[in-house]
Amino acid sequence: MSASKKLPGSNSLKATLLLVISVLLISCETVGYYSQAARGQLAIVFGREDIQRLLQQQDLPEELAIKFERVLEIREFAESELMLPVSDHYSTYVDIEREHVVWNVFAAPEFSIDPVNWCYPIAGCVSYRGYFSEQSALRYAQKLQEDGYDVYTGGVDAYSTLGWFEDSVLSTVLTRDDYQLAGLIFHELAHQLVYVPGDTTFNESFATAVEREGVRRWLTTVNDATSLDAAMLDHERQQQFVDLIAQYRDEFAQLYEQEMAANAMRDRKTELQQDLRLAYENLKQQWQGYAGYDEWFSSSLNNAQLSTVASYNDLLPFFSELFEQSNRDFSSFYSEVKGIADLSEAEQNQLLRASH
């Protein structure tokens, strides 16, 4: 280990513990899955390099030095202004030498918008299965497809370990604009603060609310009006994209509720997918040809793929309004959110229905 590496300490012990847990599980397939997850996380832990020490190296490329300085500024802002639990998170860097850190596999029945869920010891039940190897993800996706499911596989550039480890800045995110990097860090740190196992919509909507307000405040503080305009435009386009998918999610759901022969339903499903592509092309006209979602639309648009977007921000209006009711004070806002997270599922549902 080089002098610039940050000792993994208890993090390696935690990863080893996860590996031991996987061995104690009954299913051989499950053991294999958790083993690859533990190995992948261990590789990140042992690949970490302290950013402060890297900045002291004479041969550090200038573009990396600039990014690392920005990360340190973002961390300080997250802690002092957004009251997020920074600790040692994002104080280290890992060059993972691949395009994505993990690949997530999503699945859904051919005629249902409800995704398949997998349950994990820490994260609870979520609608994806993550692999540190693209080939492993594709093999599992192929198996699901052979079982008759709609399947979608997508690369992920960063993720939160929910406080189990000290998260690092990964090489997969350093090409992003500064405001996008800030948004990612704010978003993932929000997961450290409040996380309801198994409730993706609650978790992602809350983190997105923190991310957006955090980016707005940060760019205002550093007086970067150009990036602020770009960030607001990104958020507007993202919301229009999410709204479009949500609209078609409802249309697919209505289709699947009909009494119809499988072949006829399959044909109608294909027509709806084509309609969605056309609607996206029309939306792009409003964006002056912005093509940021073209790659996403190049895939099949099956039920599994639609599930990756549909509910991601469903509760964002609720959390945005709650922030306003908290006098735009993060301490009060977090206290309110933690209180809601501690409610029973029935109490949460009642509160959220009343807010609509």
Question: Can you describe what's shown?
Answer:
With 356 residues, this protein is mostly helical. Helices cover 58% and strands 8% of the residues. The protein has 14 helices and 8 strands. It starts with 9 loop residues before the first helix and ends with a helix. The relative contact order is 0.10. Residues 1-9 and 20-27 have low confidence and may be disordered.
Short structural description:
The protein has 356 residues and is mainly alpha-helical. Helices cover 58% and strands 8% of the residues. Helix 4 (62-80) crosses helix 6, helix 7 (200-221) packs antiparallel against helix 8 (225-256) and helix 7 (200-221) packs across helix 12 (316-325).
Please supply descriptive tags for the structure shown above:
disordered N terminus, 8% strand, 14 helices, single chain, mainly alpha, globular, 3-stranded mixed beta sheet, 3-stranded antiparallel beta sheet, 356 residues
